[in-house]
Amino acid sequence: MRTRRLSGSLPPGHDCHTYDAVGYGTVGTAVTEPGQGFRCRPGTTLSTIDPTGDATMSTSSDVIDDAPKANTDTPLPPATLGGERKGSVEQIALLLFIVVPFLALVASVPLTWSWGGVSWLDLGLLVFFYFLGCHGVTIGFHRYFTHGSFKAKRPLRIALAIAGSMAVEGPLVRWVADHRKHHKFSDAEGDPHSPWRFGETLPALMKGLWWAHIAWMFDEERTPQDKYAPDLIKDTTIRAISRHFIYWTMLSLALPALIGGLVTMSWWGAFTGFFWGSLVRVALLHHVTWSINSICHAVGKRPFKSRDRSGNVWWLAVLSCGESWHNLHHADPTSARHGVMRGQVDSSARIIRWCEQLGWAYDVRWPSRSRIDSRRNPDQDGSRRRRETAEAA
After folding, report:
1. Same domain, 24 and 153
2. Of 54, 236, 318, 358, which is most buried by a Cβ count within 10 Å?
3. Are 164 and 136 in contact (CB under 8 A)?
4. Same domain? 63 vs 105
């Protein structure tokens, strides 16, 4: 973390710290006071990252150095369908994609009993498509496209874009734009989905958790893609994948039913394949992903320094493919590994390591032990600070 004094703008004894919180674009400002935590000033910016390596903060290891600049003279084509604001038709469609899979998830318990259990085929479809979509989001949408934790060969880049789209969490470019904005204003005014939006009292937090988990998606205002994801919009292939999100959704929902029907050669096999491999799978993955926005910003241990309230929630680690080690992620956003301590499961980091060994991924930002230790939270208990850090992936 770099410290810079802004002459005349802060009282004596206060420091202004610049963070590459997003790994791309404009960095935010946080002010620290003696004995206090970070206070973000969302409206303040200090510099813009120059992909060529010439900007003020381009020497930081947190910076994506290969993200192309947007051409400010020519408007970038949209990478999603719809306008600048979310209309009623889209809100109704969103509601259906939330409610219908959730009802299937709720119904799965009594139906399992009445159907005499779940077949191995249906269970296999659920698990396979769950982790395909989940890793598509965690490795692709999140660590690669949003934060540039590694570079990828073109086939891997396209595969990650498609796999993440099959998680049915929205178009790639919109997902990335929202998440980059989240990091810029994390748990402060401007954050699209902070659970602390309405205050710190228990009723306010309950309302905030609902907002961070689901309600924020119904907000009519959209994150400007040309501001937060111009590098992705300029890639014609990625723009096409994002723009045709509806087709990836249809494929994601149809494949389990198709496989189930063909394997069993029955319509019942197609139906149960769709029920477990599509509806239940989508609902489970949605709520695990949304829990990172809500639960992991409200509770959890915070062994690392960050300017927000991100926490590590161990019981979500396996289902979130390592994303619930959220405190480290916000302390070091471009790190390819989030679970950096002994025993912290991070399947996304393991797959990135395999891709690196196969030559598909390169320039991976693995966190060194010294880098991890430099982000330790001095307010943590001494015994926790002394706990041995596991070797990076």
Report:
1. no
2. 318
3. yes
4. no
Name the pairing type of β-strands 151-152 and 361-362: antiparallel
Both tokens of 202, joined, read 């228990």
Q: Which of the pair, 88 or 196, is modelled with greater confidence? A: 196
Domain range spanning residue 58?
1-67
Q: pTM of the full predicted structure? A: 0.81
CA distance 21 to 306: 9
Quick one: 131 and 254 in the same domain?
yes
User: Looking only at Cα atoms, what is the longest distance across the chain?
Assistant: 76
> Is 78 contained in some domain?
no
Residue 74 lies inside a defined structural domain of this protein: no
Determine, yes or no, domain membership for 247: yes
| Pairwise CA distance, residues 393 & 389, whole Å | 11
Alpha-carbon distance values, 369 to 95, 212, 330, 388 (Å): 44, 33, 17, 10
Band of pLDDT at residue 348, cut at 50, 70 and 90? very high
Residues 22 and 135 in one domain: no
- What 3-state DSSP class applies to 185? coil
Residue the block writes with tokens 């189930």: 260
The token duo for 11 is 């009282």
CA distance 229 to 180: 8
DSSP 258-313: HHHHHHHTSHHHHHHHHIIIIIIHHHHHHHHHHHHHHGGGTSSB--B--SS---B-
For the stretch 248-300, pLDDT in tens is 999 999 999 999 999 999 999 999 999 999 999 999 999 999 999 999 999 99
Tell whether 277 is covered by a domain: yes
Query: Would you tell me the crossing angle of helices 120-135 and 154-165 to the nearest 10 degrees?
Result: 120
Integer Cα distance of 289 and 136 in angstroms: 12
45 plus 163 within the same structural domain: no
H-assigned helices in the chain: 88-114, 120-135, 154-165, 172-184, 202-213, 225-228, 230-233, 236-243, 245-264, 267-274, 281-294, 326-331, 347-357, 369-374, 382-385
- Count up the domains in the chain and report the number: 2
